[in-house]
Write a structure and sequence with these properties.
Order of helices and strands: HEHEHEEHEEEHEEEE
CATH class: Alpha Beta
Oligomer: single chain
Distance between the termini: 49 Å
Largest sheet: 7 strands, mixed
Radius of gyration: 17 Å
Structural class: alpha/beta
CATH architecture: 3-Layer(aba) Sandwich
Shape: globular
Helix content: 10-25%
Number of helices: 5
Strand order of the largest sheet: 3-2-1-4-5-11-8
Number of strands: 11
């Protein structure tokens, strides 16, 4: 079986239907933000992929003004089909020149920040886009250690992807320095996630005797999920 280049492991989004029932973490995001999702509010989804989260938001709150941003023109093309009454932007959160000129009431970024070594850079840029509140969901280290790593397939030095695990502590210290209010909300996957053997980068669950489901992937790093809320 031919394997995709490992830095292209997120290409599976092009094969999935973004209109399917939302993932559990996206539901949790909406629960945290629901009191701010008022008619006419402007929302930006950084790393929107093919528009699954924006489609879910539109189904719940039709009067929101939605914008999606992603580095992949291919993803953005599919997102435009998924949510035709939203705005879309090709850009990289780490490149100030590629960011939208406007600011948004609410900014979301899900499952993206592990790609970036310099957390201060993307956080500053995210704050620059936020009027009220930003939500960043994904993997954070609950221990006071920052882990920087690169993943590549065995025997293949031509393709790799970053896999960084930044601590809640480091994020908190940086935001405290900026005098920005913030809070972490930890989240556990409430269901089994089967392994996709063809793609060892995708996460799966291992059922444990005492703590429910442990989420891992081929890196063998345990996945601890959280949502960072930042209030401006």
């Amino acid at each position: 079986m031919k394997m995709n280049r490992i830095e292209q492991h997120n290409q599976f989004y092009l094969e999935e239907d973004p209109r399917r029932p939302p993932k559990e973490l996206l539901k949790f995001l909406v629960q945290l933000a629901q009191w701010q999702l008022t008619p006419g509010s402007t929302v930006l989804d950084v790393g929107c992929a093919c528009g699954a989260f924006l489609f879910y938001l539109r189904s719940l709150y039709p009067a929101l003004r939605l914008t999606g941003m992603d580095v992949s023109p291919e993803f953005i093309g599919k997102a435009m089909e998924t949510v035709p009454n939203a705005y879309f932007w090709v850009g990289d959160i780490c490149v100030p020149e590629q960011l939208p000129a406007e600011r948004f009431d609410l900014v979301f970024m899900s499952g993206v920040h592990y790609l970036f070594r310099d957390y201060e850079l993307w956080l500053r840029n995210l704050l620059s886009l936020t009027k009220r509140t930003a939500f960043v969901s994904g993997l954070f280290n609950r221990e006071e250690l920052d882990v920087y790593s690169v993943v590549q397939r065995a025997g293949d030095k031509t393709s790799s992807t970053p896999w960084n695990l930044i601590s809640e502590k480091s994020i908190g210290v940086f935001l405290d320095r900026l005098n920005v209010r913030h809070e972490f909300f930890r989240w556990e996957l409430p269901m089994e996630l089967p392994r996709v053997h063809a793609d060892p980068v995708r996460s799966w669950t291992i059922e444990t005797k005492d703590s429910g489901f442990l989420v891992v992937n081929g890196t063998q790093m345990v996945h601890r999920f959280a949502v960072l809320r930042v209030d401006m």
